[in-house]
Amino acid sequence: MNGSVLRETQIHRWRPPEQGFWKVNSDATTCLKVPSSGLGIIIRSADRSVCVAAAYNSKATFLPIVAEAMTVRRGIFLAIELGLVPFLIESNCFQVVQMIRYGDSFNGDVGPIISNVVLSLKSLPRCSIGFVPRAGNAVAHSLAKLAISFNVDRCWLDSFPPYVERSVLLDAAF
């Protein structure tokens, strides 16, 4: 195991990105009772301020790895759309991160999504992907779970509901 992966797995809380970068955290959850996959994304700056939080309900249940890859792709596109580059996107799905970083596999349902993410990151200098344990991805996870209960997608810019603000405060507290 190389040093960068070791260092990343030792992070147990959310950490801000380097100055001049944005951090995009993404997570997904699936629900079998109500056929749905929730996608959660939060983008923050080096000074810890939240720029955008999003909760998307796919209205279909995907394999967890597919939902995670979809969320990474959605996070990248959201950052690009808002001009929030360069960025580090983080996911707590180690397998998706490895597939994107090293091209481990582009097969099955996840293949086209991974290929799209790899091409997007190659076209964006100074943008990269990293693994973060669930504890360092708590707000994105909360947003993904919340998305399951929404009938419409939600994206908040600059002003956030109290439950999002509470999650951010808990997540960034040291």
Automatic annotation (TrEMBL):
A Pfam family assignment: RVT_3
* Top-level taxon of origin: Eukaryota
Q: Which InterPro entries match?
A: RNase_H-like_dom_plant, RNase_H-like_EbsB-rel, RNaseH-like_sf, RNaseH_domain, RNaseH_sf
Gene Ontology MF terms: nucleic acid binding; RNA-DNA hybrid ribonuclease activity
Where's the RNase H type-1 domain? Answer: 25-147
Q: Which CDD domains match?
A: RNase_H_like (cd06222)
Please state what the protein is called. RNase H type-1 domain-containing protein
| Annotated organism of origin | Acer saccharum
